[in-house]
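pls design
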C-alpha cells in the first residue's frame, strides 16, 4: 500500500535490533525490512531465523562503515526510514579497548549520516524520510541519590569510552538535522533486558550462571541504581517516535523503575527458584543449577572488584514521550523478567 514503509535496521542481529524486527513484522506485516549487520561477536544471524519466512524481510551481512554499500541499499530498496541500532555496546569492553567504539559508534554513525544526506537530500530525494538514532541514558553521566532524573535537557557528561562514543554520535545526528535539514530523531533509553540479549550483560549473565550453577558476579557493593525497561517497551517507544515524533527532537525512554542492582539480583534468584518449583522437569535439564536440588541460587552471589568509573545511579524522566506521544511501559520488572527467563529456558543449556 502507499502507506507501507521501507526500513533499514542497522544492528538488527543484536539484542534490541532482533526484538525490534519481530515487533515490527508482527505489527506492520506490510512493511519492508532490510537488516544491515556486520555480525560481530554480539550479532547472531540465527536470531533472525523466524524473520526469513517473512516476504518483506532481507538480511545484508555488511558494515555501517561501508558508505557505498549503505547508499546502494538506500536506493535499491527505496529505504525511507533508518533505525540505527548498530553499535559496540558493552561498557567493560570499551574500558579494555575503546578503538572499536570510536570506529563503529562515531565514524560508523557519521558514515550512515553521510549516506542518508547524499541519497535522501540529493540524489534520490525522499521528503518523508527519517533517520532515527538509538542512544543511551549513559550519555548524561551519573546521578547522586537526591538528583532529579535525566531529562532531555540534562547536560551531557559521559564517563566511559562507550558513553562518550554514544554522546559523540548523538551530537553528529543533531548537527545533521540543524546543518543539512536531515529529518532525524534520537531516543536515549535506560537499561534494557529481554530475549536475545548476549550473556555478557547483567540479567542474561545471571540467568545462565544460575542455570549452570556458576557464581553470580556483583560489582562492588551492588548498590548501583539502574532504571530497567523490558525491550519491547523500548521498541514501542521507538515506534511512537517514528510514527508521531517531531523531526529534530530527542526523547528519553525509561521505565520509571529504579532498582538497586543487588535487589535485582535477589529478585532474579527468587524468580528462578520459583520457576523451578513450578516446573519439576527443569531439574532434569539443568542438573548443575542449585534450584534443581532445592537450594536457593542466592548462595551463588559473589562480590567482585567494582568497574572503574562505574556510574552510581541512572534514572530517566520520561515525561516528554509520555505526554507528547502517549508512551507508558506495559511490563513490570516481574512480568518482563518472567518472559525473559522463559525465553532463556527454551535455549540450549550452556555448560
Ligand atoms: P548489541 O551489542 O546486542 O548489538 C549490536 C549489533 O550491532 C550486533 O548485531 C552487531 O553485530 C552489530 N554491529 C556492531 N558493529 C557494527 C558495524 N560496524 N556495522 C554493522 N553492524 C554492527 O547491542 P544492543 O544491546 O542491542 O544495543 C543496540 C543499540 O541500543 C546500541 O546503539 C546501544 O548503544 C543502544 N542501547 C542499548 C541499551 C541496552 O540496555 N542494551 C540501552 C540503551 C541504548
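designed seq:
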Amino acid at each position: 500500500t502507499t502507506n507501507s514503509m521501507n526500513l533499514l535496521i542497522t544492528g538488527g542481529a543484536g539484542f534490541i535490533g532482533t526484538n525490534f524486527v519481530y515487533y515490527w513484522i508482527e505489527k506492520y506485516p506490510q512493511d519492508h525490512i532490510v537488516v544491515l549487520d556486520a555480525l560481530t561477536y554480539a550479532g547472531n544471524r540465527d536470531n533472525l531465523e523466524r524473520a526469513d519466512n517473512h516476504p518483506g524481510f532481507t538480511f545484508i551481512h555488511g558494515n555501517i562503515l561501508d558508505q557505498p554499500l549503505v547508499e546502494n541499499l538506500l536506493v535499491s530498496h527505496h529505504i525511507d526510514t533508518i533505525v540505527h541500532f548498530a553499535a559496540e555496546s558493552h561498557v567493560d569492553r570499551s574500558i579494555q579497548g575503546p578503538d572499536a567504539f570510536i570506529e563503529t559508534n562515531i565514524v560508523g554513525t557519521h558514515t550512515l549520516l553521510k549516506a542518508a544526506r547524499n541519497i535522501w537530500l540529493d540524489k534520490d530525494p525522499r521528503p518523508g524520510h527519517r533517520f532515527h538514532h538509538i542512544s543511551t541514558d549513559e550519555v548524561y553521566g551519573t546521578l547522586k541519590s537526591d538528583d532529579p532524573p535525566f531529562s532531555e535537557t540534562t547536560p551531557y557528561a559521559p564517563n566511559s569510552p562507550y558513553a562518550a562514543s554514544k554522546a559523540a554520535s548523538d551530537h553528529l545526528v543533531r548537527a545533521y538535522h540543524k546543518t543539512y535539514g536531515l529529518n532525524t530523531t534520537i531516543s536515549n533509553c535506560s537499561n534494557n533486558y529481554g530475549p536475545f540479549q548476549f550473556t555478557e550483560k547483567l540479567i542474561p549473565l545471571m540467568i545462565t550462571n544460575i542455570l549452570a550453577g556458576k557464581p553470580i558476579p556483583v560489582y562492588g557493593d551492588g548498590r548501583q541504581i539502574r532504571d530497567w525497561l523490558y525491550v519491547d517497551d523500548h521498541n514501542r517507544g521507538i515506534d511512537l517516535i517514528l510514527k508521531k515524533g517531531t523531526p529534530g527532537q530527542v526523547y528519553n525512554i525509561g521505565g520509571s523503575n529504579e532498582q538497586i542492582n543487588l535487589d535485582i539480583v535477589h529478585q532474579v534468584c527468587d524468580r528462578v527458584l520459583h520457576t523451578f518449583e513450578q516446573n519439576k522437569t527443569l531439574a532434569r535439564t539443568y542438573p548443575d543449577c542449585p534450584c534443581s536440588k532445592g537450594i536457593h541460587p542466592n548462595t551463588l552471589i559473589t562480590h567482585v572488584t567494582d568497574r572503574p568509573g562505574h556510574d552510581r545511579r541512572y534514572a530517566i524522566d520520561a515525561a516528554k514521550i509520555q505526554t507528547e506521544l502517549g508512551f507508558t511501559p506495559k511490563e513490570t520488572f516481574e512480568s518482563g523478567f518472567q518472559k525473559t527467563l522463559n525465553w532463556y529456558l527454551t535455549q540450549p543449556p550452556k555448560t
